[in-house]
């Protein structure tokens, strides 16, 4: 996996948790085999799983959402029919 961007690598918060001796051994062995620190190994695995969970529960894919937001920023051309319709007096007036 690629290195995390600087914003994600900044350490501003701490997570503390206890693990069983057997899990500790497995994590240390797997981290060593991956040529990573235990911290980097655990954070990478946790971040990947968090991304999977969040993506599975997102209503639209991220790339579609990004395209939608970009489309909202595109300047629009006035539509004469809508401009005329908006200029007409309202039939119902809120009081």
Low-confidence stretches: none
Q: So how many helices?
A: 5
By DSSP, the count of extended strands is: 0
**N- and C-termini, Cα separation:** 60 Å
Mean pLDDT: 88
Strand content: under 5%
Sheet/helix structural class: mainly alpha
Globular, elongated, flat, extended or rod-shaped: what is the shape? elongated
Regarding quaternary structure, how should these chains be classified? single chain
Order of helices and strands: HHHHH
Instruction: Report the biggest beta sheet as strand number plus sense, adding barrel if it closes.
Output: none
Q: Taking Cα atoms only, what radius of gyration do you get, to the nearest Å?
A: 26 Å
- Work out the helicity level: 55-70%
């Amino acid at each position: 996996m690629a290195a995390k961007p600087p914003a994600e690598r900044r350490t501003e918060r701490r997570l503390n948790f206890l693990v069983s001796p057997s899990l500790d051994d497995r994590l240390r062995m797997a981290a060593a085999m991956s040529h990573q620190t235990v911290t980097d190994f655990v954070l990478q695995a946790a971040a990947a799983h968090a991304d999977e969970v969040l993506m599975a529960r997102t209503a639209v894919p991220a790339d579609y959402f990004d395209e939608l937001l970009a489309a909202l920023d595109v300047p629009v051309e006035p539509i004469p029919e809508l401009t005329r319709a908006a200029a007409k007096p309202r039939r119902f007036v809120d009081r």
